[in-house]
Amino acid sequence: MTATAPLPQWAQVLDTEGFRPRGRLTPQAALGPRTWFRVGGAAELLFQPASAEDLAQTLRHLPLEVPVMPLGACSNVIVRDGGIDGLVIRLARGFSAIMRDGDGLVAGAACLDMTVAEHAAEAGLSGLEFLAGIPGSIGGAVAMNAGAYGSDMAAVLDWVEVVTRDGRLLRLPAASLDFGYRHATLPPQSVVVRARLNGMAAPPAIIRQRIDEIRAAREAAQPVRARTGGSTFRNPDPDESQRKAWELIDAAGCRGLRVGGAQVSEKHCNFILNTGDATAADLEELGDTVIRRVHDHTAVTLRWEIKRIGRPATHVTGESA
Ligand SMILES: Cc1cc2nc3c(=O)[nH]c(=O)nc-3n(C[C@H](O)[C@H](O)[C@H](O)COP(=O)(O)OP(=O)(O)OC[C@H]3O[C@@H](n4cnc5c(N)ncnc54)[C@H](O)[C@@H]3O)c2cc1C
Q: Has residue 159 been placed in a domain?
């Protein structure tokens, strides 16, 4: 265990003679540089456990009132400028193994979706190509039911292993997650540590071709190299509007709209961008402005798909005399 600044009071239980988890504990860890948007404050305490057992033991020791927030590749979150209270968990090396398992793959939650797609191609397993276009981790993919090009995690997940907030390691069948659009029902504050994905035998060359097509389609349609978070808003339910979120945003005149350093992408207007010096507050205000304008223009209320997490920055105005 390493620590660079004093541990918060509630975390003293993680640094005693009797218990010290293996892994890395970093108080006041800057999260902005770890996110796709490159915005946001610090984690009160960031924990990168060495193994699922270290994570489970840590959560067993931690008082239950301390909030726990797992993060993956941070490709679907705006971390607010005031940071995240409690324990933020990010899985790394001990959670990045990928193993062939019959007609599927078992992947650690820290594996990038793209890496899993590549492994599946090498192993001659089709059905996981859609992961090549999603820049998140397997943990985030399960939690968000990530999907693209006609497939999603709900279609391929066999089981998932989670560490629950009270420190139990559970294997849950996919059917128990009650998947919906970009949603899975996991036990509250639990951390996905491993997942088994089903595939189907196919020639690697055909799988690779499909992966290349998906990558090319992404490049053409989305600002994939920008500081962004993927689709900002969900598409409305068909009974509310037949138009997609980007069409409503375009019709409301929001393409290219700016708030501070945040901008609605000119290339794909359901993406918002940090053009360089945006704050999380700029991004959130831009999104809320888009929601208002689309509502004024079309009477449809867009809903955020990107998760906004943590606290807004607090402004200290000084003591009164
Ligand atoms: C350019 C771009 C294109 C994108 N295209 C797509 C797309 O086509 N389809 C799509 O579905 N998404 C897309 N996204 C969004 C994003 O990549 C996915 O939602 C992805 O699954 C998020 O994974 P992550 O690891 O980055 O999760 P994060 O952004 O870190 O977290 C997202 C949520 O998952 C939870 N979470 C993360 N890890 C864990 C874990 N181990 N255990 C429990 N909960 C966890 C977090 O608490 C949070 O609520 C895109 C994003 C970008 C930037």
A: yes
